[in-house]
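Page 37, continued from 36.
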């Protein structure tokens, strides 16, 4: 009996003293210690009285209420109010935890919370590899950042890089927007997020979509590539790459861009665009083309630069420098153009100031319709906004109408101003005022040439039929003669200012760029695919298990399971380094490893401690 007391006294002292063991041995302190070889062979039971059980091993500290420690295996299981701390940078809480000192591998479950200086991770169960300095969950988790909250089914944290990699149903929630992504890599130090796979960023004012992108969650700026677009209330911006600044509501697009106006049925394309949402304006250059629908026909306007301003109910399109327009029944050119979609007014304008250059070469605005050509200092086209059909046109100053005769020569009309009227988009009447002149090839009903009519008058009315001059009426101060063709001098068959530009006429949409070199596209700065990392659960020898044979985890819990849903690697459905569990949400949730009923376990351990104390007291009385 004396030997028993000596043994018990030594054991009690050793249990209450920090074990200063060499190498990789786990050191511990505990208020209570007992053995139960029947239930826990090779283990000791550690319990809290006033102070929590305390473990320390190579820089990591663990506190808990109760623990089962396998000293020879360098492994323990902790129950109740578990806390882990690695230096000043990692703190973790849970209901239950296991730790293998040989492999430095830990597992925690039950209300797991891991805190870092910039983020807090919460999940049901968490694996922590201290050698790799990586944590991993696959049962759903939430990370709270200084600016956002991120949730996903699967997540992996790289402590040295301070990076989270989220996979499967990733959601980042910010007071201003919500990001939904297939995969998101997040750097907590900077707040930078890299987006992979189909991704949306939704807010009250816009929705961004991309399949590869970058977003600064603290600076609120983003860069998106691969099928990227931005949707505003009534406008969509698409391009090979997009830049977005939420603070200034500014976006820019580069290469193969499209800006769609869903209300006004218009589309603008080009290779560089800037969008200012607060100003309701779009700036487009590099082979810019604005297309709109008019009476089931498309009108295309091309210029070096196109600007669209105004709210949806009052859009204004401006084109600058060598502007060209094409419609199936009409085409034209001018130095600049102005179109008010609310009023239906289009102005073809000549540049009146500034030096003449190869880009801004001054030439009178011109319109072609069939074999007719119309020029003047300024041309206005008026459309009916309800029917979308042309209603009228006006030519201000130096109006000149030329029509190629069906057989020879040119019919010509000139004057100060011109007014034209349309019916079903066909010009049927033209009135020319002030100092008018005509040179007209007169024919009979059999289209035989009668002679050439050259006339001066105050005003003229021309009636058109199928885009050809049908009749001409002269008003006031008429002075003209009909001269046989053979008697009319060849050098007098053109009125002063005559300039036939039929070779410039646009015959198709492709002629919008005729004579212009293809633009040099800006190289797109890509976003690389995420780096491949080794699988989280590495293959191990049988005698080098991640945890321990006494662990509550099964061997299959530590296997890398392959995802069977990913079929297209380029779609980034799921990189292999995250294929530890299938990504189906229902399956993933079943993979959660809940904490044991630690309260029940704590009660059992406490009961064993009480029984041990009672036996010791009874044994002391007997002796």
């Amino acid at each position: 009996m004396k030997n028993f007391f000596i043994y018990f006294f030594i054991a009690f002292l050793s249990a209450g003293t920090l074990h200063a063991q060499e190498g990789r041995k786990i050191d511990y302190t505990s208020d209570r210690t007992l053995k139960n070889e029947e239930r826990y062979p090779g283990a000791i039971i550690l319990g809290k009285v006033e102070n929590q059980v305390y473990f320390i091993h190579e820089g990591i500290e663990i506190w808990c209420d109760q623990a089962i420690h396998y000293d020879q295996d360098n492994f323990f299981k902790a129950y109740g109010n578990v806390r882990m701390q690695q230096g000043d940078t990692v703190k973790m809480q849970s209901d239950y935890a296991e730790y293998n000192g040989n492999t430095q591998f830990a597992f925690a479950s039950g209300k797991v919370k891991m805190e870092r200086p910039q983020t807090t991770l919460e999940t049901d169960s968490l694996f922590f590899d201290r050698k790799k300095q990586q944590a991993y969950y696959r049962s759903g988790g939430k990370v709270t950042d200084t600016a956002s909250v991120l949730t996903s089914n699967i997540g992996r944290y790289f402590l040295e890089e301070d990076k989270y990699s989220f996979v499967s149903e990733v959601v980042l929630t910010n007071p201003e927007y919500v990001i939904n992504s297939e995969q998101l890599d997040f750097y907590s130090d900077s707040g930078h997020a890299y987006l992979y796979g189909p991704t949306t960023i939704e807010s009250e004012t816009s929705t961004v979509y991309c399949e590869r992108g970058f977003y600064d969650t603290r600076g609120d700026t983003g860069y998106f590539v691969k099928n990227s677009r931005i949707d505003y209330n009534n406008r969509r911006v698409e391009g090979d790459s997009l830049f977005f600044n939420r603070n200034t509501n500014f976006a820019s697009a580069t290469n193969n861009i499209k800006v769609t106006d869903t209300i006004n049925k218009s589309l603008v394309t080009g290779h560089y665009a800037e969008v200012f949402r607060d100003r309701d304006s779009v700036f487009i250059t590099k082979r810019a083309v604005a297309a709109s629908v008019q009476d089931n026909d498309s009108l295309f306007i091309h210029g070096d630069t196109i600007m669209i301003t105004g709210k949806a109910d009052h859009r204004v399109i401006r084109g600058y420098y060598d502007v060209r327009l094409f419609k199936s029944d009409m085409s034209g050119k001018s130095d600049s153009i102005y179109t008010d979609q609310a009023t239906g007014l289009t102005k073809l304008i000549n540049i009146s100031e500034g030096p003449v250059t190869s880009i801004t070469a001054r030439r009178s605005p011109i319109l072609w319709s069939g074999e007719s050509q119309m020029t003047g200092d300024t041309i206005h086209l008026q459309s009916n906004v309800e029917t979308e059909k042309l209603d009228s046109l006006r030519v201000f100053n130096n109006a000149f109408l030329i029509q190629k005769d069906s057989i020879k020569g040119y019919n010509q009309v000139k004057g100060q101003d011109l007014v034209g009227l349309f019916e079903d988009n066909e010009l049927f009447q033209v009135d020319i005022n002030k100092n008018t002149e005509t040179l007209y090839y007169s024919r009979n009903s059999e289209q035989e040439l009668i002679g050439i009519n050259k006339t001066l008058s105050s005003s003229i009315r021309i009636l058109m039929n199928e885009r050809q001059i049908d009749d001409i009426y002269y008003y006031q101060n008429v002075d003209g003669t009909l001269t046989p063709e053979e008697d009319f001098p060849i050098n007098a068959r053109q009125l002063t200012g005559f300039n036939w530009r039929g070779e410039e006429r646009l015959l198709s949409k492709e002629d919008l760029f005729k004579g212009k070199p293809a633009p040099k596209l800006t190289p797109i700065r890509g976003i690389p695919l995420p780096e491949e990392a080794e699988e989280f659960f590495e293959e191990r020898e049988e005698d080098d298990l991640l945890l321990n044979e006494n662990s509550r985890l099964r061997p299959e819990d530590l296997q890398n399971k392959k995802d069977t849903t990913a079929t297209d690697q380029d779609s980034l459905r799921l990189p292999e380094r995250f294929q530890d569990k299938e990504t189906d949400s229902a399956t993933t949730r079943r993979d959660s490893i809940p904490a044991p009923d630690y309260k029940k376990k704590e009660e059992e351990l406490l009961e064993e401690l009480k029984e041990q104390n009672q036996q010791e007291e009874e044994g002391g009385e007997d002796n």
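The chain is about 5% helix and 50% strand. Flag for discussion at group meeting. The CA atoms of residues 178 and 202 lie 5 Å apart.
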